Backbone:
């Protein structure tokens, strides 16, 4: 036979190569246990001839480490990466891309185990290696910028994160093409960062690009889709599209459960997304269940002493506060604060966040001096970390302004709110929700200082920005519309008052349903306008609805229920129905006395109202006896 016509020899893959191929196929389909089994077999064979196969062993260790990380077995992952790094140092000193790859893997694992400083240092080492290299490694450079961006975001450095993720995408798209698999994570990272800045522009496009890239490179059914749908749920939640948000979060949860099982970090993230959605919708029981599920998963995987456990615990405390369980909320939030101080030290972002959350709780329970103290601690930390111009600093100035309003120090309150406004405008421009929030708070301060014209002006500014950003029916509009309605009521413009208050009620009812505390607030406000117009029957109808909602939402021992009882009691008193007035004044004392204390000034006023009603009732009984 002519040699030229002979068939080429068939190359049979070695057993190690066969195991390696099976492992990679299993890993790509998220069959992690099977992948590890085959990686281990390939590793054993290659290990027999270590010197000849060092490169293959290095590669297998990295791939095994990534599988372990996806399985949330972080210590095993780190062992693999560190062994790979040891092999690199012995056998591959000139492969900068390989060194950066394993260091990025080490940094990502450090970040997931809350070793944030160590992770940032590792990523900076990667960046330095790549910048000093004479060769270009766009995939590794893009990944390094992305990792640094996400750590900047975690530390509250949103602008730095935005700059780094832009560099990441610029490098990767130019060098690798628009649909390269690496770009999926980068587009999602940019979406996360933009949403953290309270912006939505371009986010949907980034999420859709990510989903399309995952589909092209990995197929429609892949666990990477879970994170994309979770991000989509957050976007829809911000845009006030609750049904679409719930659908996206539930899809994320479904995908995560299918590929990872119940005990995985991605499953916890899906529960958290649903928890925030249910909290926003006022479904606090469902929110509580979702956060508890996430906390259990984080505890199982990461241990009790991990920041993500405290993150979920923090929101369990916030939910207790919203349910009117103030003592329980304080216990939880103080425990979170202590854990964070012990873990991070006194000057960390999460510690400042805990101080602020406790400040909000104290403000809500009329412990205003305590609230002031905690807000000032939080502000001091944020200013030291970020300087004077940061969104967290702006929020604290608003909080401090609100406290000084309560102390009737309107000049100091105005000063803080003006600082918040200046920071927001400098950071975000004039058409941003943070700017709208500052205008809202300025309006409240002007109203308290009896400058109703300025109050109305700033509420209108707030509404105009929010309408431009979100449209006419977004939840964020409800509060400024509500306040504007009350302000018009204070100058006897009752038609305008009812128009704005009714619009706020419609938005709240549509978003939350008819049994949320804010819907109760709207009913009470509308009732107050009818009362001022002398339409007591109509006022009573709205007051009674507010009382029913608040009683169901808070229970009977809350200042909100007390407010409703007081308003109803006063109406019955005016209508000379003294026995019913007396019963509602008693309920007022019981509710406010339990929530604020028997010696609280507001409780003492309630006692005075009760005494007057009883005196009038006694006179009537005495008169009838004559």
Residues:
């Amino acid at each position: 036979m002519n040699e030229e016509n002979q068939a080429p020899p068939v190359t049979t893959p070695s057993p190690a190569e066969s195991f390696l191929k099976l492992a990679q196929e299993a890993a790509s389909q998220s069959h992690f246990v099977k992948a590890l089994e085959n990686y281990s077999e390939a590793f054993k064979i290659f290990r027999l001839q270590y010197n000849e196969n060092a490169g293959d062993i290095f590669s297998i260790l990295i791939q095994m480490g990534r599988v372990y990380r996806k399985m949330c077995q972080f210590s095993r992952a780190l062992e693999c990466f560190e062994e790979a790094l040891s092999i690199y140092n012995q056998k591959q000193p000139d492969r900068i891309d390989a060194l950066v790859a394993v260091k990025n893997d080490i940094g990502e694992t450090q970040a997931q185990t809350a070793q944030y400083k160590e992770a940032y240092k590792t990523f900076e080492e990667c960046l330095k290696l790549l910048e000093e290299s004479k060769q270009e490694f766009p995939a590794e450079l893009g990944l390094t910028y992305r990792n640094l961006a996400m750590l900047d975001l975690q530390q509250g450095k949103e602008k730095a994160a935005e700059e780094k993720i832009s560099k990441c995408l610029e490098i990767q798209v130019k060098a690798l093409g628009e649909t390269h698999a690496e770009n999926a994570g980068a587009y999602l990272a940019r979406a996360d960062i933009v949403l953290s800045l309270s912006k939505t522009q371009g986010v949907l496009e980034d999420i859709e690009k990510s989903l399309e890239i995952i589909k092209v490179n990995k197929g429609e059914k892949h666990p990477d889709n879970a994170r994309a749908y979770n991000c989509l749920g957050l976007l829809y939640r911000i845009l006030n599209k609750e049904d679409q948000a719930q659908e996206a979060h539930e899809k994320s949860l479904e995908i995560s459960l299918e590929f990872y099982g119940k005990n995985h970090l991605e499953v916890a993230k899906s529960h958290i997304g649903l928890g925030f959605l249910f909290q926003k919708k006022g479904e606090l029981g469902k929110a509580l269940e979702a956060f508890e599920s996430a906390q259990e998963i984080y505890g199982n995987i990461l241990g009790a002493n991990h920041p993500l456990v405290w993150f979920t615990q923090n929101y369990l405390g916030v939910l207790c506060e919203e349910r009117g369980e103030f003592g329980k909320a304080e216990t939880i939030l103080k425990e979170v604060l202590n854990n964070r101080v012990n873990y991070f030290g006194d000057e960390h972002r999460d510690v400042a966040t805990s101080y602020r959350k406790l400040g909000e709780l104290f403000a809500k329970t009329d412990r205003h001096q305590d609230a002031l103290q905690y807000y000032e601690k939080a502000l001091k930390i944020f200013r030291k970390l970020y300087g004077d111009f940061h969104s967290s600093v702006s929020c604290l100035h608003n909080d401090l302004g609100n406290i000084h309003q309560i102390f009737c120090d309107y000049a100091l309150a105005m000063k803080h709110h003006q600082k918040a406004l200046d920071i927001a405008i400098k950071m975000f421009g004039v058409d941003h929700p943070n700017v709208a929030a500052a205008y809202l708070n300025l309006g409240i301060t002007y109203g308290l200082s009896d400058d109703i014209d300025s109050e109305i002006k700033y509420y209108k500014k707030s509404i105009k920005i929010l309408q431009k950003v979100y449209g006419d029916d977004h939840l964020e509009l409800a509060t400024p519309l509500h306040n504007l309605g009350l302000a018009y009521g204070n100058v006897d413009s009752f038609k305008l008052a009812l128009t704005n208050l009714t619009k706020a009620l419609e938005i709240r009812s549509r978003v939350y349903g008819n049994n949320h505390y804010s819907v109760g607030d709207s009913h009470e406000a509308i009732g107050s306008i009818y009362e001022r117009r002398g339409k007591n029957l109509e006022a009573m109808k709205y007051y009674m609805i507010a009382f029913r909602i608040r009683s169901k939402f808070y229970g009977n021992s809350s200042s909100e229920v007390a407010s409703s009882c007081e308003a109803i009691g006063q109406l019955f008193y005016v209508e000379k129905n003294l026995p019913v007035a007396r019963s509602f004044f008693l309920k007022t004392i019981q509710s406010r006395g339990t929530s604020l204390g028997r010696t609280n000034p507001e409780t003492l006023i309630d006692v005075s109202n009760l005494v007057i009603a009883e005196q009038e009732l006694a006179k009537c009984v005495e008169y009838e006896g004559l």
Observations:
- Residues 564-626 form one domain.
